[in-house]
Design brief:
Length: about 725
């Protein structure tokens, strides 16, 4: 089937309201339209769905979408229907009557996309139904979502997926489109084979997620307070907080609730009902935050998760990538912060030690060390993550803490020499804790028992804290400058590089953690703040509409659409239709309602006509805040400007004739005295005025009243 290039763009706008394809989408869609098989490996949020939805709409016949998760189907279908597209799903959650009438609609040709669970699809009676569909309307394709489920090597094998290969035998001419976000070569191979894909168009996207900001923070002793502060800095966006254990999940969720943050727990120890209720309340924005173990996530399709925090170290890096990757599926900026304390290592090691199988333990240890590479790494976080997926990333991403704010490197060669010679003096038979004890001059029983209190290195490291020595020790290990046994005792021993250090042939630099301020990208841009207010307003309108329809808010509009509305403030249906994410159906359904709200908002924001024509935007914004009753320091604080700048704004506005009530800033007596003075002496410099009037009068007061006088006297 041939579709001219711009026709595809036109269809994208018409059905989904987007102007441009994301990388890979257009090629996949073209291949699908040409009747080819497809294997697309794209990270979460890359926009897989449109790749099979658009061909389904453009081709005659029905497209079958195989999806493993019932909750996910519902959401996808809701979103399609909201775009005015004939879509439905069939799964075990439906009663007979409903299922029957949906099948009827399909036979009538009203449906372009049908979502089914694999076990349903492969039932003989259902295949019979499909045969009927084929002879009446044709089947335009099978889209296999989460295709990695066919592979035992993937993290989510589902035996039912194995039967999908029978589709190939039964419908050899119908193209198959396989989609997944799981990357390993082994899984890809399996998908190709199991689904019998025939010379497919392959798309392997980069696993880089440019809109995610990655950061690792040292978890402090008062870690809950630190977490709370980080949450508050996210300005109310939806977020997931991952914890290691159920107990921690309950604890954190409980504390957040008592701090009046809408949060719910989620872990495998809860009943199914409770879990799905909490999940739904999160998806529908009834609560801001879900605190969860890794049990939460698979099938969470919520596109507007604005942050994912790991309160404790994750067990492996692939898991971390997938969990953090649940943020920002909509392509909007989102924050992924890992709070890391070295004490996490012991917790995970304890779990590893409980594993019965030695091979499993080895794998788990290796995974732990990869996670530590990430957490303690001083390179670009993306470089570390992507290298794990076999991708080389050049670094300098400007979207991670190490790139934006490189950790200071310090030369710790001398400390390293002390540390390593202590390892040597202790006969290379002890672990890090003991070495540090000796360095710090401990008189502990164990130190005395081995006579280590008599070593020349005993007490030579008192100048550094235990934590600092640990930092050094781990960094040496991490950089391969000292070794440790893997027999479970972690005995330190010297390697060639260690000896080079001891012989002063090699220098040691380590990254020392800096205190991280909780700055959350505050923009002192007034337009941005106004847009933020409108965004909040539109968000609550969206929530209301979504609740009325019983769908998640993002089905109504994505965050990015609301943001564009807030920034552009469209006033006509025509310009509303230009907003990304507004297609024909949404324009009809929501256009006037949103326009009315935007109009209303704009009016409530407009400064009074008497002063609106004066001053620059930034001065106007200051004035708005001033009129809301904020005092100078408050305005300065909110806008991130200096108080004198705020005063200058007001002074300039007064001189331009804006009505500014300065009684709040200058007492009536002072005003009278200054006006008197100026009337007698005429225009004067502020310094001269102050010399004459005295130190009681501040420059700010003089400036403001002089502005008033200039206007009054027509200067
Ligand atoms: P995936 O299944 O790959 O995780 P989705 O198909 O759910 O991703 O898409 C993620 C988000 O990106 C959705 O909100 C979707 O509407 C949006 N999206 C997809 N394609 C585009 C596009 N071309 N332009 C703008 N947004 C898009
Ligand atoms: Zn980076």
């Amino acid at each position: 089937m041939f579709v001219p290039a711009d026709a595809l763009e036109g269809a994208l706008k018409q059905f989904f309201g987007y102007d441009r394809f994301r990388p890979g989408q257009r090629e996949i869609i073209a291949a699908a339209l040409a009747g080819r098989d497809v294997l697309a490996i794209m990270p979460t949020g890359a926009g897989k769905s449109i790749c099979f939805q658009l061909p389904a709409l453009l081709k005659p016949g029905l497209t079958i979408v195989v999806s493993p998760l019932i909750a996910l189907m519902q959401d996808q279908v809701d979103a399609l229907v909201d775009n005015g597209i004939g879509a439905t799903f069939l799964n075990s959650s439906l009663d007979w009557e409903t299922a029957r009438s949906r099948q009827e609609a399909i036979l009538q040709g009203e449906i372009k996309l049908l979502y089914v669970a694999p076990e349903r699809l492969m039932g003989e009676s259902f295949l019979g139904f499909l045969d009927q569909v084929r002879s009446r309307h044709g089947i335009s394709g099978f889209a296999i979502d989460e295709a990695h489920c066919v592979s035992e090597w993937g993290h989510d094998f589902r035996p039912e997926y194995r039967q999908l290969q029978n589709l190939r035998h039964r419908y050899p001419d119908v193209p198959m489109f396989a989609f997944t976000a799981t990357a390993t070569g082994r899984v890809q191979q399996d998908i190709l084979q199991q689904l019998r894909l025939n010379n497919p168009h392959r798309h392997l996207a980069s696993f880089n997620r440019p809109n995610l900001y990655y950061e690792v923070r040292k978890r402090e002793k008062q870690s809950y307070g630190q977490l709370l502060q980080a949450i508050r800095a996210q300005k109310g966006g939806s977020g997931i907080i991952y914890c290691f254990s159920r107990r921690k999940v309950e604890e954190v969720a409980g504390r957040l609730q008592s701090d009046r943050i809408a949060a719910l727990p989620y872990h495998a120890g809860m009943s199914n009902d409770q879990r799905s209720e909490n999940q739904n309340r999160f998806i529908r924005d009834d609560v801001q935050i879900i605190v969860a173990t890794i049990a939460f996530g698979m099938g969470i399709n919520k596109p507007d998760v604005r942050f994912v925090f790991h309160y404790q170290l994750p067990r492996n890096l692939e898991g971390y990538y997938q969990e953090a990757g649940r943020a920002g599926r909509d392509g909007e900026p989102a924050n992924c912060i890992l709070f890391y304390s070295p004490s996490d290592i012991h917790t995970i090691e304890y779990v590893i030690d409980q594993k019965p199988d030695e091979q499993e333990q080895r794998i788990a240890r290796q995974q732990l060390s990869q996670v530590l590479d990430y957490a303690e790494g001083i390179e670009c976080r993306r470089t570390i993550q992507l290298s794990y997926f076999g991708e080389t990333f050049p670094g300098n991403c400007q979207g991670c803490d190490n790139c934006c704010n490189p950790p200071p490197l310090e030369d710790w060669t001398v400390e390293a020499q002390k540390f390593l010679s202590c390892v040597a003096r202790c006969q290379q038979r002890f672990g890090m804790t003991h070495i540090i004890d000796v360095l710090r001059g401990s008189k502990a029983e164990k130190v005395r028992k081995y006579g280590h209190d008599r070593l020349s290195t005993h007490g030579i490291g008192k100048n550094r804290s235990v934590d600092q020595w640990k930092l050094l020790g781990r960094s040496l290990l991490h950089q391969g400058l000292v070794s440790e046994t893997s027999n479970g005792f972690r005995v330190l021993f010297l390697n060639d590089k260690s000896w080079e250090i001891l012989r002063s042939q090699r220098q040691v630099t380590i990254a020392v953690p800096r205190r991280i301020t909780g700055k959350a990208g505050t923009r002192d841009n007034e337009r941005a703040m106004v847009a933020e207010l409108l965004f909040e307003e539109l968000r609550s309108l969206r929530k209301q509409l979504a609740d009325e329809q019983g769908v998640p808010p993002y089905v109504v509009f994505a965050d990015s659409s609301l943001r564009a509305m807030a920034q552009q403030q469209p006033r006509t249906l025509g310009s509303f239709g230009q907003i990304p994410g507004v297609g024909e159906a949404k324009l009809k359904r929501y256009g006037s309602l949103f326009l009315a709200h935007i109009e209303q908002f704009a009016q409530s924001q407009a400064p009074e006509p008497s002063s609106s024509s004066f001053g620059t935007d930034t001065q106007q914004f200051t004035l708005q805040l001033y009129k809301q009753g904020l005092n100078i320091p408050e305005i300065a604080d909110q806008r991130g400007l200096r108080p004198t700048t705020i005063i200058r704004h007001l002074g300039d506005l007064i001189e331009q004739g804006a009505s500014v009530d300065i009684d709040r800033l200058v007492s009536p007596e002072h005003q009278a005295a200054i006006l008197d003075y100026l009337t007698q002496h005429g225009e004067q410099s502020l310094t001269l005025m102050r010399e004459c009037l005295g130190e009681d009068y501040s420059f700010d007061e003089l400036r403001l009243v002089r502005g008033k006088w200039r206007i009054m006297s027509g200067k």
